[in-house]
Structure to design on (288 residues):
């Protein structure tokens, strides 16, 4: 009978094979995964490339800065050498021309020092600062000299720098601060070290006192100038000469000039007679 006829069976997918729809979905999923992996790899490569470019750029910039810094340091050494030689020539017949040249080199050297920030020695700062002071360019001179003094790299440079800074402050009528700097100069050899002896301490005190006398006399501090500074320096010189079998505590043109300027200031501003100061005797005890 027709009602009992068997229904035809639907075709079966062989076991172990995928349905065409499923197969298409699988292929699409695999393609998507491959595309994702490729995109991720490309992104990673791009990031690595960017980072590498940044690193290379930074290193290249570092090398350039280092090369520029080395070039500036070499230029600074050359300028400082020229300044020292020029300062010697400035005392000759062409002093005015030499002074202008020195000032220009000192200003250029100061620009380099500002650019370098570090790796500049205290003696270099002192030499450039002194040249700027001589040229009456006081602001950068004071900054360099004070910086060199505070670094205290060696007693001699420290004392010279404090005295240079004090001289500028006196000229700017900042007398109280100038006196503090002079005291700092006196104390520059007070720390123990291989470069510090009793002789070097006495030498520094005597020279600093002679150096300060004209400034103290000019501002009316005659008692300080005569009784404290001139008398102290003179006594140290005489004591050393007597104790050390006629050796000299102070020597050189700078020391002699400091003593000459000191006695002239005392006689001019404070009206102290030359015989009271024992000028001739003291000047003979300064070796030149």
């Amino acid at each position: 009978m027709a009602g009992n006829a068997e229904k035809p069976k639907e075709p079966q997918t062989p076991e172990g094979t995928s349905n065409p729809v499923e197969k298409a979905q699988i292929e699409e999923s695999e393609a998507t995964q491959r595309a994702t992996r490729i995109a991720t790899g490309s992104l990673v490569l791009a990031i690595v490339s960017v980072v590498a470019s940044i690193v290379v750029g930074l290193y290249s910039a570092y090398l350039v800065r280092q090369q520029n810094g080395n070039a500036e340091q070499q230029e600074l050494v050359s300028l400082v050498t020229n300044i020292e030689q020029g300062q010697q020539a400035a005392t000759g017949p062409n002093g005015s021309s030499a002074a202008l040249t020195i000032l220009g080199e000192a200003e250029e050297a100061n620009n380099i020092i500002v650019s370098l920030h570090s790796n500049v020695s205290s003696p270099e700062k002192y030499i450039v600062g002194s040249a700027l002071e001589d040229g009456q360019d006081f602001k950068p001179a004071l900054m360099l000299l004070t910086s060199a003094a505070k670094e205290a790299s060696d007693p001699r440079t420290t004392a010279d720098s404090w005295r240079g800074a004090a001289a500028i402050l006196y000229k700017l009528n900042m007398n109280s601060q100038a006196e503090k700097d002079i005291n700092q100069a006196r104390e520059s050899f007070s720390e123990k070290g291989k470069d510090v002896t009793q002789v070097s301490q006495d030498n520094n005190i005597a020279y600093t006192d002679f150096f300060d006398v004209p400034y103290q006399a000019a501002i009316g501090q005659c008692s300080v100038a005569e009784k404290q500074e001139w008398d102290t320096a003179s006594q140290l010189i005489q004591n050393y000469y007597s104790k050390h079998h006629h050796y000299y505590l102070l020597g050189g043109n700078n020391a002699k000039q400091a003593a000459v300027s000191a006695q002239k200031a005392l006689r001019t501003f404070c009206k102290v007679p030359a015989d009271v100061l024992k000028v001739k005797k003291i000047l003979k005890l300064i070796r030149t």
Remarks:
- The first strand starts at residue 250 and ends at 251.
